[in-house]
Amino acid sequence: MTRTFDRRTVLKTGLGVGAGLLASGRISPGSARSPVRLTIAVWGGKAEIDAYNKVIAKYQAANPNVTFRLDVLPSGQFYQQIDTKLAGRQAPDLFRATYQQVGRYAMNKAAVELSKYLDSEYGTAFMPSVWSAVSYQGKPYALPHHTDTFALFYNIDLLEKAGVTVPARLEQAWTWDEFTKVARLLKEKSTGPYPFAMGWTANAVHRWLIFLYQHGGRMLSEDMKSPDINTPAGIETIAWTQNWFKEGLVPPSTSLKAAEPAQNLFANGTVPMMLNGNWQIPFVEQQAKFRWGVTYLPRDVAMADDLGGTCMAVSRDSKNPDIAADFLKFMVNEENMRDYVSSAQFLPVRKSLVESGVEFPLRSEEMKVFIEQTKTIPEHLVNTVIRPTWGKFSSKLADELDLAFTSGQAPEQTAKNIEAHVRSILLSA
Amino acid sequence: MMVTTTSPMRRRFETAGLWLLLAVGAAVMLFPIYWMLVTAIRPRDEVFSGDVSLLPSGWVWSNFVDALNHMPFLSWAWNSTVIAVVAVVITVSINLLCGYAFAKFRFAGRDILFIAVLSALMIPIQVIIVPLFLVVSDLGLLNNYWGVILPRAAEAFGIFMVRQFMVSIPDELLEAARLDGASELTIFLKVVVPLSKPVIAVLIIFTFMWRWNDFVLPLVILTDQEMYTVQVGLNLLKGQYNTEWTELMAIALLSLVPMLVIFVFFQRQLIQGIAGTGLK
Amino acid sequence: MADLSMTYPQAQSETSTSPISRWWRSNRSRLTPYLFIAPNLLLFSVFVFFPLLYAAYISVHQWSLIDVPEFAGSQNYARLLGDLQFWQALKNTVIYSAATVPTTLIIGLFLAIGLNRELAGRTLLRSMYFLPVVVSSVATALIAAWLFNDNYGVINAVLKQAGVGPVAWLSTPKWALPSIILTTLWVRIGFCMVVYLAALQSISPSYYEAAVIDGATRPQQFLYVTWPLLRPTTFLLLILNVIYSFQVFDLIYVMTGGGPGFSTTMIVQYIYRAAFANSEMGYASAMGIVLFALILLFTLIQWRINRRTEQFV
Question: Are B195 and B104 spatial neighbours (Cβ–Cβ below 8 Å)?
Fold first, then answer.
């Protein structure tokens, strides 16, 4: 990386000795046998952090010269902090990223290209969707760790009180109309001020695509070369999700740029239903003081769901990329992946584990619903969100949808604006 | 104080009415902090029950203990304290020197430099936060107390206050000392500083407050959770997996304690000190 | 003139004749002020002015933090002119400033006048008004978010009791900005009050006595004695509060994140978003430079106005 203006030289010339006398915070590089310290940056709830710590401890036991520091950063600022550190060449050795965001780092070579650490067939052991997500121009820049998807959590006590029965099979999933009717019924029976909440955030706006694809719409054309959002299907999806806010079916504070996380509202009994992901299970299990269950998402002309989950990458600032890559391979091997997903309630991404199935100590019946839902993720959706430009585009998508949800921006205008952003950002590379 | 010519009876009514108005206003001012305390000691279920009473039904002091167990608040408090204390020592010393120079010396470029110092007040830190981060990182001060202390050690507002104050120190005292052959540094230490006690008191309190309450810079510079300051830690708590407003309020309240203590013990000096600094 | 010769050690007799010490002795009084201001200037240069210059440099580039800066000429500035959301953020900031600055000044002034009188417990009352000033912005934002919370906030509970119905404070564009304004009033009134109080106490009673002799009523005393004598203070508070309101960030960041929509996005917060959420460092730096220029301009204008009416120092 070259710079046209070497500010470091200017600074060091100006300050000279004085700077050198100040305390230094640098880590000294080491070889495989000398002590090595790796920093890993992640976000997550207690279950995920515990699971990370477990695999770290295992690696340390086998490699006593390597010590780790696990930095838990707030999820809302995670990528900002990683970016700032990369700009200062102080990024951690390893960092977590969603499949939607990792492409941006791969494209800018902020993550280390890993093929020299892997044999040529390594990628075939993983589900093709996640392997494409971590690859850029055919080379892997991160290793996939787990995936997740969305389903409908519901408060059994409150739904029983209102006389609502949930679909028992995927084929019986509620249509959009039925779902809206259920929501209105719950609101009428005053089981809470708002019948449901959707667990999306500005960082995870791709979850809105669930509904877009359910309604037969999509962000890009079939050949992925032009925008396809400014269509009746796109506009109607915007209108339907906007209506949740207009009609008061969801708390106004659960829009994309919101303050109120959906799982908090569900767990303390404020909303009887929530659309959220499988990793919320440990949290809800611990917090909810009522009976609860998980059922299928509503559907429209099709059923669709979200490609969730994260991978992990070695940053270009790492002083020990070999050891970092070694730990990464260890973390995603079959045994450790199985341990992680079963304790943090995620879904595995190795074909072998998907086939054999994983034992979930907590709520295995509910996990089956999620597993079934993963089969409904459209491939076109996956290809759209794993584009390296998705990360930059998603913040603009969040802006537009948030304006529709909270500030009454018309669906037609919203679709037009999103189309413009698709052209200028999503399709720019 | 304005002089009045109305009757004593009317004056008493007026005074009582005024007092009532002021007292109600003060109660409104204090209410948010009271509410913080009340939320912190409420039983958890009562917070979300939907009925809200102004007085808590029970006092659950264990909320504080739980909060302290879940988060390394004491480390954060330690970090904030070290940073604030060191910053106070540095900032007060260099601000006194600098303000004195601007107040009592004539030198080439004095006005331009003073305006330059004042203009530093107008630069929002967010504008320079990324270049600042890069500078701190190049100096090797990331995740380090000094990376938070040094960038904010030169505080323009403090220089301004000191200068305003010192302008009113009689020149004769300084001249007399010079005639006696004392060096400038001695004059500063033995004449100027003792006379500046009011502004020093205000500067110490304000600097401590500014550094204790700093948010954006520590957010970007401190990367290790154990190194976080109280404010950065508080922001972390307002996170995704936290329904515990009781714990959040408990920690927020604890984060106020040092400033509250300083305030309670020094409010007289503080409020009177501002008068003395000639900030008028 | 006091005899201070006993307090200070006698000057050293002129025995050493090395060039350096001779040079020092003859130039001492001229160099001293520079030495005294040197630590501050050094720190400002390294940590304020150099970053500012660097920000100006970045502002003519495109840079996303994780890639290499690319020269872009005046592209960012041109974009700024056409960016509706930038102008909305600026508009929000001006509205916010206009709503908070005069209000805090006026309330602060009347509080100061009221608390300047001989009242029981006035020290306690003064302290209670000043207390919010020492609370950190993060804690303030958290308390405010809790008070204004849609579902569990006490403000809505009180409104419900009063039959006025709950208001979705922080999630409707109409009410989000007012919540922030109210919170700011809470934070800033105490500061204005204290500064005005100090100023009031330095007004000599003889002015008022003279006014009374001339037959001035209380309102007239305020208008013709108090207000004019407070002009320097008002000028100072105006500048300080406008600078504060244009730089407000922590409160917005923690309380609403700039939402809902862009209704509470202030200019500094918009800059932060551009830099960190949208990875557009060049654009963010350009906006920052423009903001700095605006604040500078405002201060200079205020300075000029004040010069014509009153001496500042």
Answer: no
CATH number of the domain enclosing B177: 1.10.3720.10
Q: Provide the residue range defining the domain that includes B24.
A: 8-60
B144 touches chain A (CB under 8 A): yes
Residue B194 domain-assigned (yes or no): yes
Chains with 3 or more CB pairs under 8 A to chain C: A, B
The answer on B141 and B117 residing in a single domain is yes
For residue A160, the tally of other CB atoms under 10 A from its CB is 12
> What is the CATH code of the structural domain delimited by C83-312?
1.10.3720.10
Q: Are residues B77 and B56 in the same domain?
A: no
Contact between chains at C260 and A257 (C-beta distance less than 8 A): yes
Q: Which phi and psi (to 5°) does residue C94 adopt?
A: -65, -45
CB contact under 8 A, A1 and C68: yes
To test the contact with chain A by mutation, choose from B137, B241, B248 the residue with the greatest count of A C-beta atoms within 10 A, namely: B241
Cis peptide preceding A35, ω within 30 of 0: no
Same domain? B127 vs B216: yes
Query: Does residue B66 fall inside a structural domain?
Result: no
What is the tally of structural domains in chain B? Answer: 2
**Same domain, yes or no: B91 and B48:** no
The runs of H, that is alpha helices, within A189-312 are 209-214, 232-246, 262-267, 281-287
Alpha helices in A357-389 (DSSP H): 364-374, 379-385
* B51 and B104 both lie in a single domain: no
Q: Has residue A392 got a pLDDT over 50?
A: yes
Nearest Cα residue to C149 out of A186, B16, A87, B245? B245
Closest chain C residue to A76, measured at CA: C277
Does any domain span residue B2? no
Positive or negative torsion for Cα B18, B23, B29, B35: negative
Please report whether residue B220 resides in a domain: yes
A357, B205, B267, C311 from C233: Cα distances, Å: 74, 21, 21, 11
Q: Which of A2-6, A186-190, C52-56, C132-136 has the lowest mean pLDDT?
A: A2-6
Task: Tell me: do B88 and B19 sit in the same domain.
Answer: no
pLDDT in tens, A222-262: 999 999 999 999 999 999 999 999 999 999 888 887 667 88
B52 token code pair: 């809200």
Using CA atoms, how far residue B262 sits from A308, A315, B259, C113, C176, in Å, is 49, 44, 5, 26, 33
Q: Are C140 and C134 in contact (CB under 8 A)?
A: no
Domain positions in chain C: 2-58, 83-312
- B56 and B85 in a single domain? The answer is no
**Closest A-chain CA to B47:** A268
| pLDDT value, residue A20 | 40
Mean pLDDT, residues C117-145 = 86
**Which chain B residues are Cβ-neighbours of C49 within 8 angstroms?**
116, 120
Across the interface, whether the CB atoms of A283 and B141 are under 8 A apart is answered no
Partner-chain residue, chosen from C40, C132, C299, that has the shortest CB–CB distance to B159: C40
Q: What is the DSSP string of A26-74?
A: PPPP--SSS-EEEEEEE---HHHHHHHHHHHHHHHHH-TTEEEEEEE--
Interhelix angle B245-276/C122-134, rounded to 10 degrees, is: 120
- B–C: how many Cβ contacts below 8 A? 303
Q: Residues C309, C231: contact at Cβ < 8 Å?
A: yes
How far is B225 from B270, CA to CA, in rounded Å? Answer: 34
A23/B140 CB distance under 8 A: yes
Residue B31 tokens read as 């209410």
Domain end marker among B37, B60, B83? B60
Could you give the 3-state DSSP secondary structure of residue C149?
Answer: coil
ipTM above 0.95, yes or no: no
- Ranges of H-type helices in chain B: 8-41, 44-47, 62-70, 73-104, 110-120, 125-138, 145-149, 156-166, 171-179, 184-187, 193-195, 197-213, 216-221, 230-237, 245-276
Residue of A nearest to C275 (CA): A80
B122 and B29 part of one domain: no
